[in-house]
Fold these 4 entries.
Entry 1:
Amino acid sequence: AQSVTQLGSHVSVSEGALVLLRCNYSSSVPPYLFWYVQYPNQGLQLLLKYLSGSTLVKGINGFEAEFKKSETSFHLTKPSAHMSAAAENFCAVNDPGNPDKLIFGTGTRLQVFP
Amino acid sequence: GAGVSQSPSNKVTEKGKDVELRCDPISGHTALYWYRQSLGQGLEFLIYFQGNSAPDKSGLPSDRFSAERTGGSVSTLTIQRTQQEDSAVYLCASSPRPANTEAFFGQGTRLTVV
């Protein structure tokens, strides 16, 4: 069965530093890949997604992610962290056996310090 | 409304009571998901509805949990004989077909079983 692993439940960076949030998936068939963000006391919203084509995708708020098939990874990056980026971030993939079913990782809480 | 609406936003119930959580998806969205978000556990898939197809119930944790979707729109998640471990935030999401489109999430219902 498809699974998603987010390495590191908490990531802390200084304002202006590079943000790197890791995501790996398990299936041998490349799935659709998503990153969602949850700001405090809010619902989840889509940051970016990879379906096909260019392996580097850009999303909202300066985030981007790169799909690496050989590493079964879809890590999320942002060149320069802002205080406003503090949130819970979830990687999600669809289940190759049931493409409409989204499977989420356990989340990574991003903290940004001044 | 413009987004996914969930009610109530907060629910406190006594152990052993039944509860019903409601989700109003975005109009025209054929797919509807229920997830459970527990502290440190990420998003746990519960159930998925797609149009008139039989729902994917593979994520329901026990037979105390059930869900229905009436008229392809509003959905109700029912938890019978609630237990303290049922305490969590229950999130509903909807999306249009096909599977590679964004899922839109509601704000969730925070359930506390005392």
Note: Chain B touches chain A at residues 4, 31, 33, 35, 40-43, 45, 48, 50, 56, 91, 93, 97-100, 102-103, 105-108 (CB under 8 Å).
Entry 2:
Amino acid sequence: GQSLEQPSEVTAVEGAIVQINCTYQTSGFYGLSWYQQHDGGAPTFLSYNALDGLEETGRFSSFLSRSDSYGYLLLQELQMKDSASYFCAVRDEQAGTALIFGKGTTLSVSS
Amino acid sequence: DAGITQSPRHKVTETGTPVTLRCHQTENHRYMYWYRQDPGHGLRLIHYSYGVKDTDKGEVSDGYSVSRSKTEDFLLTLESATSSQTSVYFCAISESVDTEAFFGQGTRLTVV
């Protein structure tokens, strides 16, 4: 089967840097994705890593190490609007083509 | 924004009644998914579809059925609703296995 582990909560202050880790276990690996969800809203796509290394998109970066079954989302120059839940997700052979999500990390940014 | 619409957005129903939720897309994406979201559990896959009439079960499929007779519509049916099915239901679509998924705005279902 598949499983993903990520911290349940993270707190930080505006302007800081935060790293949200994700470890996964799958029967076949097709890449690691990250999604953001604000309270009451729909999840929205942030990034996708199929190969090892760092992908940067503005203030957000995502890293993958396939040998360690590990990835992280790095958020820089935190803003209040970054307060949200962040989910890592993988596509797994046992789940066909569907995304399987971790339980999510709630990020609270304070001033 | 991706063209994906869920209906209804909110529903209250009684235990034992059938309920159908609809997901409609205008993107012509091949893959469609139904998830439920509950506090402490994240997003859990109920069923998914990889083409018209091609569907398969996810990790929490018991008590749910789906149908996809057209590319644009993916229906989720609770044959006999139970209180444990009170949840927020999200539909998602993706063009391929390597592309991002787009989510609908969700349906809040309450079973009393």
Note: The longest strand of chain B covers residues 42-51.
Entry 3:
Amino acid sequence: EDQVTQSPEALRLQEGESSSLNCSYTVSGLRGLFWYRQDPGKGPEFLFTLYSAGEEKEKERLKATLTKKESFLHITAPKPEDSATYLCAVQARPPPPGAGGTSYGKLTFGQGTILTVHP
Amino acid sequence: NAGVTQTPKFQVLKTGQSMTLQCAQDMNHEYMSWYRQDPGMGLRLIHYSVGAGITDQGEVPNGYNVSRSTTEDFPLRLLSAAPSQTSVYFCASRRGLPGSSYEQYFGPGTRLTVT
């Protein structure tokens, strides 16, 4: 069974204080690892997709990296507007033809890290 | 594009009542899905659809029904509401062939309380 564990559960930073969020995963063949941002009372908003170990992607103050067992979301010089819950999800590769099971590519989500950045 | 829209935004039901949560997308996405989000549990898949007329169960399907008569719409029906179904419900859609890894787009959510 695919599993995703995010840590820490909550992180409080001062504005400008860089840090990292962790996403550890086990999956039967990784098809993709996704990072989402969720603001209170809203739906998750897509940030990044990572496909293979060693891959990195950046967007403004955020950089996501991937190894064979975990992904990190690095936040450089965060601002109060970066405060949100950050969700990690993995998608397994579909089974080979004839092996049975769904080929839909279900996402398994972690519980999220609540990030608060104080001015 | 409106993206993924959901109605209502808030709903209160009494135990045993039924209702339908509406979801629509205007991106011509093949795949649509319903999740529920509970504190400490993360997002859990209820039902999904890979195209009009095709639906399947996710992790937590009991007490919910879905149908997909058009590409755009994917309603979720609660047959007989129970307090355990108090949650925030998100609809999502994505494009792509089976097994592809395109990102999902989520709606704004419906907050449901069952008393």
Note: The first strand of chain B starts at residue 4 and ends at 7.
Entry 4:
Amino acid sequence: EVQLLESGGGLVQPGGSLRLSCAASGFTFNNYGLSWVRQAPGKGLEWVSTISGSDESTFYADSVKGRFTISRDNSKNTLYLQVNSLRAEDTAVYYCAKSYSSNWCFDHWGQGTQVTVSS
Amino acid sequence: DIQMTQSPSTLSASVGDRVTITCRASQSIGSWLAWYQQKPGKAPKFLIYKASSLESGVPSRFSGSGSGTEFTLTISSLQPDDLATYYCQQYNSYSWTFGQGTKVEIK
């Protein structure tokens, strides 16, 4: 059974940083792309970042480019998102999601971790 | 970036009704479209990929169709468990985008 478990969220002041983690199990980790998708309170889903499984190519939404960094540790089956220079508009639940085979859609999701940016 | 527009934003229907949600892309995305269901307080659930392929375990009352710029998600006979918000997502380009969501309410 595929499982994705996020952690690392919390309350942070504007301009602050956090490192989000997503521990994965139940599949061959390094064979799949992984992504972060966020959802602001009462709003829809917003894709944030993706890292491929093969060559670890990375992709970012314009709204986070230069501030967020996605990475993966295949030896630990863990995905990360380093979030810097946080703004109030980054407040959201951050979901980790696994890509579906060679399709860049998301067949499994974690339960999410809350990031709140406020002074 | 490719923009995805869903309609309607909210719909109210009775149990047993046929329900259709439309998703339009700002440019052609071929068949690179997925649908998700999100219940309140829960993570999204994967329903359909490549516009019309049903994910394993998803009830057969759900179906998807379309290509290019216009797509539909159909629930053939609405059930109480289908109360949720539904999102489309394009994955044609390396900048994935979601529609704004369609909230399905049960009358």
Note: Chain A touches chain B through 22 residues (CB under 8 Å).
